[in-house]
Specification:
5 domains; five-stranded mixed β-sheet; 23% helix; alpha+beta; 708 residues; 11 helices; four-stranded mixed β-sheet; disordered N terminus
Length: 708
């Protein structure tokens, strides 16, 4: 290689290197090697300049500022050099792109990437780029997206996943992009201590009847999802998710249940006496007078211990006969199907339970209901005139007698005769239990409260300026004419559209459920049973009050509580249970008498009026002091029990079956005593009672005269 041999010597003063400076802690380094010869003079010829440097370092060998060494020597020196010819140099390949740099101070999402190339001599060393005499650039710049590091979103709400409570977050605030860092940490948290017990959803509406004719069931369901149970400690919903009620669909010519929905359980059978001839007729209404129906009766005996049935007899008579003495005592189930030609007109069917038992015996005490006698031994004869009604007069085989006797200080038979000692209070064993099911009364009150929540007293709402509604939502009923079942053709298929005025569509699921529960035949029958029991207890209490007043150990305050608190409330309870049973029964008829497809606005008006009537009566019943009545009844029983213990006849003796006697001391100081004698005769479980009042006449007393 040819080199031009012109050298220009530049004389410079060189300081001794590696020497200490004015500061003992800092040192000047040796000179670096000479750098590349660069055309810095701008002469355009091959003469250039190259440089070398030295630095100030501390004891650790770290560079510090030049002034720290406190040296008057220079840190850099230059010399003239010869720039080689360009044809001996080449341009290198481009370097890799640099990272994306932010050149806008964070104001933009984009930055720049840069790459370089250099001029190389024959030894591969970098020289000044101009030495390659290239018109190209030694750097290249392009636009790039700056890297975005990911960041977490906020934690979400706790949600139930796989039976545990979890919450989540996402790496989206922002998402990592263009080579940015991923989020650090977890995206899911779990709390094993958190739990929620399951709660039921509302019941669905009842389904349609499972049969098109005859007896079937309608069912409803609910789900354990309000909320679902979640968590290791969570409790599932309690109870069942399915319930059903009986239903009956009638053919066109036969309407109404065979037995009216009564006596359909073994707990509430119809009681029949075996001493009489009986015929049982179906209650079904024959709507087509030109046709004559047929029927098939089937009688089964019921074994109450095993709850099994045995077929007794089949018959096709119009009424089912039970002749005197034909069947033994016991529980029976009677089934009947009544039909026109079954395939054409359809049928109705039903069953009832009845208990066949002996009639109560005839029981009588010689002397009648009241008599007078002298002190000493008074004989009481309940044997001679009592007998088994099935067999007739004189038959007393297997008859048993139970006696009760109370004595009171009185010398007036007329006053004694005016007193009534109810059978429920005549024997101590009867006094401790209540005839009233207070649990049912409380259940009825609770249902009335629910009724008032769902069907409250409201202002009248007018529909088409004609009908008045308070409790039925007619928002989706555009006009009275819209209450008809219709159909539509969709994609060539005829689709039936239900009558929009169907009650289960106009009421909410909860309201319709309560309506059906309250109007069920069994519930209405339970109300009637308790209504009768309330009246019995009320009447018995009114009858026993004069006897309680006669007892010496009963205080006037006790009597006042019975008269002023217990009896008025019992009167109201009897009244409102009677009203409600009637209103529920009438509403039941309104709901069932018209098929769903035939319901009209007028029919809805009748239902709404009945709902309003029930609301009025329910308002009265929930205000009654049921807890107080329950307590007061127990107090009445305690008073009667106390009276019977203190007024028990001490000298009363049962001498033989059906005979008893009582002794009265002729020297009794009070010279006044009367007796209540009660006898209960029973035969094979059938019972009857008789009472006799006996007034003792002392020689010095002036009694009322009542002929025996």
């Amino acid at each position: 290689m040819a080199w031009k041999c012109l050298f220009i010597a530049v004389v410079v003063i060189l300081w001794k290197t590696g020497t200490s400076t004015g500061s003992s802690n800092y040192t000047v380094t040796e000179w670096s090697a000479w750098g590349t010869c660069l055309d810095v003079l701008g002469t355009g010829n091959n003469t250039g300049q190259q440089s070398r440097i030295r630095t100030c370092i501390d004891q650790m060998g770290q560079n510090v500022t030049w002034n720290t060494c406190n040296c008057s020597c220079p840190s850099e020196e230059n010399q003239i050099c010869i720039i080689p010819d360009s044809f001996n140099y080449t341009v290198s390949a481009w370097s890799s792109w640099s990272g994306c740099r932010d050149v806008h101070g964070g104001k933009k999402k984009t930055g720049e990437q840069i790459r370089y190339r250099s001029c190389l001599n024959e030894s591969g060393e970098n020289v000044t780029f101009s030495a390659c005499d290239c018109s190209c650039s030694n750097e290249d710049i392009k636009i790039c997206y700056l890297p975005v590091d990911g960041a977490w979103s906020d934690w979400g709400e706790w949600v139930c996943r796989n039976n545990s409570y979890q919450r989540f977050r996402t790496c989206t605030e922002p998402k990592p992009a263009h080579g940015g860092e991923e989020c650090y940490g977890v995206s899911r948290e779990e709390d094993l201590a958190m739990f929620v017990d399951g709660e039921w959803s509302s019941w669905t509406n009842y389904s349609s009847c499972s049969v098109s004719m005859g007896h079937g069931v309608r069912h409803k369901t609910r789900n354990c999802n309000n909320p679902k149970p979640c968590g290791l400690l969570a409790e599932p919903c309690q109870g069942t998710n399915y319930t059903e009620i009986e239903c009956e669909e009638f053919p066109p010519c036969l309407q109404g249940s065979v037995f009216g929905g009564n006596y359909n359980t073994t707990d509430d059978p119809l009681v029949l006496y075996s001493s009489a001839n009986i015929e049982i007729y179906p209650k079904t209404i024959i709507a087509c007078s030109h046709l004559k129906p047929s029927q098939i009766w089937t009688l089964y005996t019921v074994d109450e211990a095993s709850n099994t049935e045995t077929l007794m007899v089949n018959t096709t008579q119009s009424a089912f006969p039970i002749l005197r003495g034909e069947y033994p005592q016991g529980l029976y189930r009677l089934y009947v199907i009544k039909y026109y030609y079954r395939e054409i007109y359809g049928f109705v069917e039903g069953f009832m339970y009845f208990r066949l038992q002996l009639p109560p015996p005839n029981v009588f005490i010689q002397g009648g209901s009241g008599r007078m006698t002298n002190p000493g031994v008074t004989r009481i004869d309940a044997w001679s005139k009592s007998y088994d009604l099935t067999l007739g007069s004189g038959h007393r085989d297997n008859m048993k007698f139970l006696w009760s006797c109370l004595e009171f200080p009185t010398n007036s038979l007329s006053m004694l005769m005016s007193f009534i000692l109810p059978e429920s209070f005549a024997f101590l064993s009867n006094v401790t239990s209540s005839k009233i099911s207070w649990d049912f009364i409380e259940k009825l009150s609770e249902r009335c409260e629910n009724h008032l929540k769902l069907f409250p007293i409201q202002n009248q709402v007018f529909f088409n300026d004609t009908y008045v509604y308070k409790h039925i939502n007619l928002q989706n009923v555009s006009s009275p004419e819209s209450c008809t079942e219709s159909s539509a053709v969709i994609n060539g298929t005829v689709i039936s559209i239900e009558n929009p005025c169907a009650v289960d569509k106009l009421l909410g699921a909860e309201a319709y459920l309560l309506l059906r529960d309250n109007t069920g035949n069994s519930f209405i029958q339970d109300i009637l049973t308790q209504k009768d029991n309330v009246m019995t207890v009320k009447t018995d209490t009114e009858n026993v009050l004069p006897v309680l007043k006669l007892a010496e150990n009963i205080s006037s305050s006790d009597i006042s509580t019975v008269e002023n608190d217990f009896l008025p409330n019992m009167t109201d309870l009897n009244r409102y249970t009677r009203y409600l049973s009637q209103a529920f029964a009438e509403l039941n008829s309104l709901l069932d008498i018209v098929p769903t497809q035939n319901i009209t606005i007028k029919h809805l008006q009748l239902i709404d009026e009945q709902l309003d009537l029930i609301t009025q009566k329910a308002t009265k019943l929930v205000k009654l002091n049921i807890t107080g009545m329950k307590f007061w009844e127990s107090q009445v029983n305690k008073l009667v029990f106390k009276m019977m213990e203190n007024n028990n006849c001490n000298s009363f003796t049962v001498t033989s079956p059906g005979f008893a006697e009582v002794y009265t001391d002729p020297n009794l100081p009070s010279q006044a005593v009367g007796y209540f004698v009660t006898v209960k005769a029973s035969i094979f479980g059938a019972e009857n009672t008789y009472q006799q009042k006996i007034q003792i006449i002392f020689p010095t007393s002036v009694p009322d005269i009542i002929m025996e």
